Amino acid sequence: MSKIPSLSYVKVINALQRNGFVVVRQRGSHIRMQKRIFNETIKITIPAHKPIKRSTLAKIIKSANLTPEEFEALLSAGLYLLHILPLPNTVLTLEFISLIIL
User: Fold this and answer.
1) Closest Cα to residue 44, out of 15, 83, 68?
2) Which of 9, 71, 88, 96 qualifies as a FRET site for 46, CA 20 to 30 Å off?
């Protein structure tokens, strides 16, 4: 991928989930994800924007310790739908339902 595309936050979150990141929480228009590697935790904040700017996405990819090519491979791995389920005394909980299209 020579140029990082401008993508929806849903596609970015789904790609990062395929790489092992987990949605921890959402507060307002920002979604917090994290991934544990040995004794280290990588934390990333994803803005819930449609679309996410290319420069912001480039920083997210770099923070996730991914190359643009690795991120592109994660994007093409399948299709995921986003379902937002509000719970009492919480901002929002995200539940992801996967549909893999072959």
Assistant:
1) 15
2) 88
Residue 64 lies inside a defined structural domain of this protein: yes
Give the C-alpha separation, 6 to 54, whole Å. 5
Range of the domain at 13: 9-99
Counting the structural domains of the chain, the total is 1
Token digits of residue 26: 């959402």
pTM of the entire predicted model: 0.68
Q: Tokens 């595309």 appear where?
A: 5
Check: CB of residue 50 under 8 Å from CB of residue 8: yes
**Contact assessment for residue 56 and residue 33, using Cβ atoms and an 8 Å cutoff:** no
Q: Give the largest CA-CA distance in the chain.
A: 44
Tell me the sheet residues that pair with 93: 85
Cα–Cα distance, 60 to 56 (Å, whole number) = 6
Spatial contact of 74 and 19, defined as CB atoms under 8 Å apart = yes
Residue 44's pLDDT is 93
